[in-house]
C-alpha cells in the first residue's frame, strides 16, 4: 500500500452562473458572470485590455523606428505622430463653448452672458400669406377659429388670450387686423392701422419692443402681405 498522500481534488469551476449566464475571466483571472449587472465592468475591462495592447504596440513601433534610425536606415512615416482630426477640432470647440457658457452662468446667471438672442428668428418656418380680408376672419368671433393679431406684417396667435382678444375683451379691437400704429400711439379709435408712416424714433422703438414681446411669448404663425 502506497504511503503517498492522495492529491486534494480541485473543485470544478462553474462556467455558468445559477441563471445560466456564461462566465468569462476578468483581468485577475477570476470567472465573472456576463449578467447585465456586470456588463459595465466587463466593458471597462475590455477597454483597458485593448488600450494596454495599443500602448504596447505603439511602444514596439517606436522602439523599432529608433533602431532603424540608429542604423542609418529610413524609418518610414511615423504612423503614431500626433495629428488633429476634424473630430478632434470639433470636440475641442464644443468643450470651449461649454466652458464659456458655464462661466457665463456662474458670473451673470445666463449661459449667454446676459445677451438676449432670439433663436426663432433664425429658424426656418413655413409661413402662410394672408390678405387683409383673410386676417379679419380670425378676430375671435368664431369660437372654432384661432385668434390672430398682427404687428407691422407679422401675425401672432393669441388664442390663449381669447378672453381679452375676443368679443367683449379689452383688446378685441386689435384682433383680426394689423394695428401697428395703435401699439405705439395708444390711440385705439383712429390708429388701428398698419400704416406707420410719420412715426418718430421713440415710437418706432416702441413698435420694435411690442414685436419683440410677442415673438418671445407667441408663436409667429403667418406673414401678412397687406393685400385687400
Automatic annotation (TrEMBL):
Family per UniProt? Belongs to the cytochrome b5 family. MAPR subfamily.
UniProt-annotated stretches for the region Disordered = 1-37, 50-79
- Domain of life of the source: Eukaryota
Checking PANTHER family in the record gives: CALCUTTA CUP-RELATED, MEMBRANE-ASSOCIATED PROGESTERONE RECEPTOR COMPONENT-RELATED
Gene3D superfamilies reported in the protein's UniProt record:
Cytochrome b5-like heme/steroid binding domain
Annotated protein name in UniProt: Cytochrome b5-like heme/steroid-binding domain protein
Q: According to the UniProt entry, which residue ranges have a biased composition of type Basic and acidic residues?
A: 20-29, 50-74
Amino acid at each position: 500500500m502506497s504511503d503517498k498522500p492522495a492529491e486534494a481534488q480541485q473543485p470544478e469551476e462553474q462556467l455558468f452562473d445559477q441563471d445560466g449566464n456564461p462566465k468569462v475571466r476578468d483581468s485577475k483571472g477570476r470567472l465573472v458572470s456576463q449578467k447585465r449587472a456586470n456588463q459595465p465592468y466587463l466593458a471597462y475591462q475590455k477597454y483597458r485590455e485593448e488600450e494596454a495592447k495599443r500602448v504596447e504596440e505603439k511602444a514596439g513601433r517606436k522602439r523599432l523606428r529608433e533602431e532603424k534610425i540608429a542604423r542609418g536606415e529610413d524609418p518610414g512615416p511615423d504612423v503614431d505622430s500626433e495629428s488633429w482630426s476634424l473630430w478632434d477640432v470639433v470636440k475641442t470647440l464644443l468643450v470651449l463653448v461649454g466652458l464659456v457658457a458655464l462661466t457665463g452662468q456662474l458670473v451673470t446667471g445666463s449661459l449667454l452672458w446676459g445677451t438676449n438672442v432670439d433663436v426663432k428668428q433664425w429658424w426656418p418656418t413655413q409661413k402662410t400669406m394672408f390678405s387683409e380680408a383673410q386676417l379679419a376672419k380670425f378676430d375671435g368671433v368664431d369660437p372654432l377659429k384661432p385668434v390672430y393679431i398682427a404687428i407691422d406684417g407679422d401675425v401672432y396667435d393669441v388664442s390663449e388670450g381669447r378672453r381679452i382678444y375676443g368679443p367683449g375683451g379689452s383688446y378685441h379691437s386689435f384682433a383680426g387686423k394689423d394695428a401697428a400704429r395703435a401699439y405705439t400711439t395708444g390711440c385705439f379709435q383712429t390708429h388701428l392701422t398698419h400704416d406707420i408712416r410719420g412715426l418718430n424714433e421713440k415710437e418706432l422703438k416702441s413698435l420694435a419692443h411690442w414685436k419683440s414681446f410677442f415673438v418671445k411669448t407667441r408663436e409667429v404663425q403667418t406673414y401678412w402681405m397687406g393685400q385687400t
